[in-house]
Amino acid sequence: MGRLRTNSGLAEDLLIELDRDAGVPLHRQIEASIRAGIRAGRLRSGASLPPTRTLAADLGVSRGVVVESYQQLVAEGYLVSRSGGYTQVAASMPPSAAAGSASGPGSAASTAQPAAGSAGFRVDFGYGRTDVSQFPRAAWLRSVRTVLTTTPNDRFAYLDGRGVPELHAALCDYLDRVRGTSCVPANMVICNGYGQGISLLIQVLVQRGVRRIALEDPSSNDDARVLAGAAGLEVVGIPVGQDGVQVDALHRADADAVVLTPSHQWPTGGVLSAAARAEVIRWAERRGAIVIEDDYDAEYRYDRSPVGAMQGLAPDHVVYCGTASKTLAPGLRLGWLVVPPHLVTDVAEAKVLADRGSPVIDQLTFADFLARGEFDRHLRRMRPVYRRRRDALLAALRTHLPDLEPGGVAAGQHVVAWLPPDLDEAAVVAAAARHGLRIHGVGPYRIAGTGPGGLIFGYAILGESAIAEGVALLATAIREVRGR
Fold first, then answer.
1. Helix (H) or strand (E) holding 26
2. Is the separation of the CB atoms in 94 and 76 below 8 Å?
3. Do residues 349 and 161 make contact, with C-beta atoms less than 8 angstroms apart?
4. Which strands make up the sheet holding 454-458, listed edge to edge?
5. Which of 222, 280, 288, 334 fits a 20 to 30 Å CA distance from 477?
6. Is the separation of the CB atoms in 17 and 54 below 8 Å?
7. Burial of 85 by CB count in 10 Å (0-12 exposed, 13-18 middle, 19+ buried)?
8. Are 312 and 181 in contact (CB under 8 A)?
9. What is the pLDDT of residue 353?
10. DSSP-derived secondary structure for 148-174
11. How distant, in Å, are the alpha carbons of 35, 79, 198 from that of 44?
């Protein structure tokens, strides 16, 4: 066999042999061959793979089959997609690559108990991920060059804790226009993602005498929940219904602050109604309380008009939290807080104490990226991509598991599907893992610990055929559970 060439190559260079009578999808056979080559060391880190059209022609398959294979291997961490459309072997391999044996359909590894990381699963419906292979590298590079050639020298010195003015202005323009906020640049603090943002807010609230904080139930069990407990705050769960948090329960909670995901509740996907939003605002005004609005993925709307942010209704009582993690890449560590005027100084001082401020070049790059309209263009490009993946998930659920009830399908990068009463959530999750499928249940994210069983399907980084395979695996697992 010939050696893999730098920028292009033939199918035989990758040792791909397709068996059309094997009953295994062609894209899975391609994935298994490339994965085996990487694990065996034949395809070394940094090696460029053939363009999808070239490889498809050599194999006699459609380009979509090769694209699907590459996308799955990118999602698993074996490949990286570079600007200009070419794909390379990743510089660092997933943990399972060190095992030195191929895993794929029919192999021993694919039927073994999955490892803790996603690389041990045939399909991983892990949530909270965005498709970083689609990061707009060329547009980002143009903004980096602009920043490095035009930024005044004084911008590279120490700044105050709020961040650079250019990003304040660009973000306020975007948020007011797209999310319906009432944003004043002087009230914005740049932070390193939501995790740091909520940490700063909790510190400030504790200093100001807050003793009890309300969280949606269910809600994420990291960030706010962990940080609030560590800071000595009493955490109380507010039940979530089909349309978001139950406001009557909030009135009874005797809390001084509440963390909400009103535009797309995590994980149920409910949208807080206009009447409920107004009631939450009235609650905050009466108690002098703070509403922390986590607007984590509202840019991705598919079946309805975008829902505006709550902050625009009451900027003196609502802290708006946003990040680039779900829209661009979590590795950027770019987040922002729009803070009520009376809290700005305290939050900025907490930011200075934490790390002396976020990286200036990254802030200025994002400001230029926003001002050029590149952020809007990236979102327009990604919405149909995620919508197709969501549609593939819903179609597969209708085909294989029609008795599961999907919820929160109108937005975001995940869907929750409620289980019928005869299915135990933990048993389904465990059975799915035995069949090579990673999926999370809703139960671990409940504060009170009670409620209907449900499964969380993160679909953002999965190709459509992988989604279909994952649901088929889940159907097999559920038949096994019911067979007991």
1. helix 26-40
2. yes
3. yes
4. 405-407, 414-418, 454-458, 440-441
5. 222
6. no
7. exposed
8. yes
9. 94
10. HHH--GGGGS---TT--HHHHHHHHHH
11. 11, 11, 41
Of the candidates 247, 305, 307, the residue with the CA atom closest to the CA atom of residue 275: 247
Token code pair at residue 297: 């993925």
Structure tokens at 290: 């703070």
Residues 6+ apart with CB under 8 A from 199: 223, 227, 354
Place of tokens 């994935």: 31
d(CA 59, CA 69) in angstroms, rounded, equals 13
For residue 213, give Cα distances in angstroms to 20, 201, 264, 282, 284: 59, 12, 20, 17, 12
Which residue did the predictor score with more confidence, 222 or 350? Answer: 350
Q: How many C-beta atoms surround the C-beta of residue 307 within 10 A? A: 21
Report d(CA 210, CA 298) in Å as an integer.
Answer: 28
pLDDT score at 443 = 94
Average pLDDT, the chain: 88
Phi, psi of 369 (to 5 degrees): -60, -40
Distance CA 105, CA 29 (A): 8
The alpha helices in 271-373, defined as continuous H runs, are 274-287, 344-355, 360-371
Q: Which tops the pLDDT comparison, 207 or 27?
A: 207
Cβ neighbours, 10 Å, residue 386:
20
Q: Assess whether pLDDT exceeds 80 at residue 259.
A: yes
By C-alpha distance, which of 334, 260, 333, 332 is closest to 298?
260
Q: Convert the pLDDT of each residue in 60-90 to its tens digit.
A: 899 888 988 888 887 667 888 765 667 888 8
- Ranges 28-32, 215-219, 227-231, most confident: 215-219
- Crossing angle of helices 425-434 and 464-483, in 10° steps, is 120
3-state secondary structure of 133: helix
451-470 burial: b if 16+ Cβ within 10 Å, else e: bebbbbbbbbbbbbbbbbbb
Question: Are the beta carbons of 265 and 240 closer than 8 angstroms?
Answer: yes
Distance CA(249)–CA(238), nearest Å, equals: 6
**Is the per-residue pLDDT at 110 higher than 60?**
no
- Give the span between the Cα atoms of 262 and 307, in whole angstroms: 9
In contact, 212 and 233? CB cutoff 8 Å: yes
pLDDT at 448: 87
